[in-house]
Amino acid sequence: MRAALPDDAWNAWHPAELAGRLAGVERPWCVVGGWALDLWLGEQTREHEDIEFTVLREDLPLFRAALSGMAFFTAHDGVVASLPADMEPAEDVFQIWCQEPTERCWRADMMIEPGTPATWVYKRDRTITRPRAEMVGVTGDGIPYLKPAGVLLFKAKHQRAKDEADFERALPKMAKEERLWLAQCLTRLHPRHDWLAAL
Q: Record's Gene3D superfamilies (predicted)?
């Protein structure tokens, strides 16, 4: 069993590197978090300490195989623990950190999401759903990413400084229908959220 590295031992892949490694997987996945916003904007606007991408739970073995050479660790309730090759993560685990043992660093954060190939489901409230085709965009060079309304819905919970900056950059360029959907979700989940006035 491999030992976990320190939580801050990140040397994350660029989205293009991740996409190259996953090129042979024909199942849904997409970049999420701050990198997703930058892929949507078409430029890197800030430093990113990690890279997050999502996969469906049923597809986890395919993605682990595509990332051969990585060691995998569950990240749950503040504990990072080795996930052996012959073991599935528990149902309440939604994060798998990918370690490159030869470089002794974390490369990517693989998030397990609910839903289906056709339907995107918000994991914090599974009654919030939308066609995956409406929630996921693709860059000109083929990198799938979660569109800003979905990214900001996740970021709204914590409102860290980087989340606030991401919101301010994204808001002027968001389509009207995306702003409306995000406002509806926030009204339901965080009815006193200060982003609502801007939306």
A: 3.30.460.40
